[in-house]
């Protein structure tokens, strides 16, 4: 009787331990899925390109006109800057252009409309700014235009739809979510519908098919996971899926908190937006691809240069690039091109 009891007890104990270990394994696998930010199946290759010919800097601005990319302003760790450069991707050449005539600054915004570039807002080291300037690439000249319609600020986003510029969010002592439209033909600013999500600074914005998308950023120390698209015709915002693992579906199992960040870059190649670099408690090199058609994200190969924040990103001739930025000790002038569907290689840099 005692032997039978002991045998039965051992059998029950073994079954309980098996079930416990199985549950632990399932739980560990689920956690691994939700937090994995180093997907072995990630594709994409970064190749070093024609380095930016100005001094290394962070929090510069960029705009593109007729397949020519303009990069300027920013902070080199000692001074705020006013120089501007034009990049001809076809020849790999950087050309020095007329200096920005306004106050030297970082964390400004820029957009292009009607064949001209527009630059404004930012921080000069003492105060926040709201002045705006127009650049004519034909004459290589600048002129001041109407001040930004909202408050002085830095860390805003800017984009262009139908040859009108838009500036919104940022920080003026308060985190912001307002949106303003600039009409270059009348030199006027008009307030539009505020971002429907959280207030934020250091977000990113991109445009696809005349719709503007705003994502990432920070508000009072919280990295934000809401994602919004703006329809300028309807003057309305619509929420997209969250960029963290919050749904009961499996499409976001690998997101974790790995997409959230501030001070990142974004560029669009064809129908995919690529988000890279930034800060999430430390500087990042991770890169994610956003499929605009199905509203999902996929991990790609991280930037193969030094992790950084405050860089600029741009797409030209259907090719995507990242340059400048900083980490805790350096400001950068390297230029990297991303090939999203090529296998990663260690032999080309």
TrEMBL record:
InterPro entries: Kelch-typ_b-propeller, Kelch_1. Keywords: Kelch repeat, Repeat, Signal. Pfam families: Kelch_1, Kelch_KLHDC2_KLHL20_DRC7. Residues 1-32 form the signal peptide. Transmembrane segments: none annotated. It comes from the Bacteria. This is Kelch motif protein.
């Amino acid at each position: 009787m005692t032997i039978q009891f002991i045998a039965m007890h051992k059998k029950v104990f073994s079954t309980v331990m098996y079930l416990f270990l199985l549950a632990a394994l399932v739980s560990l696998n689920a956690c691994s899925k939700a937090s994995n930010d180093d997907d072995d199946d990630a594709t994409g290759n970064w190749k070093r390109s024609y380095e930016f010919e100005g001094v290394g800097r962070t929090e510069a601005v960029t705009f593109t006109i007729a397949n020519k990319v303009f990069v300027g302003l920013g902070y080199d760790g000692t001074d705020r800057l006013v120089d501007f450069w034009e990049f001809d991707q076809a020849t790999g050449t950087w050309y020095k252009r007329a200096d920005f005539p306004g106050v030297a600054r970082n964390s400004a915004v820029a957009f292009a409309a009607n064949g001209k570039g527009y630059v404004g807002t930012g921080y000069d080291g003492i105060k926040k700014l709201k002045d705006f300037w127009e650049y004519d690439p034909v004459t290589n000249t600048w002129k001041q235009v109407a001040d930004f319609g909202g408050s002085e600020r830095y860390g805003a986003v800017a984009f262009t739809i139908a040859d009108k510029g838009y500036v919104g969010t940022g920080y003026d002592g308060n985190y912001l979510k307002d949106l303003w439209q600039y009409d270059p033909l009348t030199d006027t600013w008009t307030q539009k519908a505020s971002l429907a999500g959280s207030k934020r600074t250091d977000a990113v914005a991109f445009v696809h098919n005349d719709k503007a998308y705003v994502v990432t950023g920070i508000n009072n120390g919280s990295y934000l996971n809401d994602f919004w698209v703006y329809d300028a015709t309807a003057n309305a915002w619509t929420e997209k899926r969250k960029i963290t693992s919050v749904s009961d579906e499996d499409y976001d199992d690998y997101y974790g908190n790995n997409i959230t960040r501030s001070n990142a870059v974004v560029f669009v190649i064809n129908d995919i937006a690529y988000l890279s670099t930034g800060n999430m408690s430390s500087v990042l090199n991770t890169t994610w691809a956003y499929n605009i058609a199905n509203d999902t994200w996929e991990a790609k190969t991280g930037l193969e240069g030094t992790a950084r924040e405050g860089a600029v990103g741009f797409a030209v001739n259907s090719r995507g690039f990242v340059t400048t930025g900083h980490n805790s000790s350096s400001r950068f002038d390297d230029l990297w091109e991303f090939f999203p569907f090529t296998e990663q290689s260690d032999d080309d840099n």
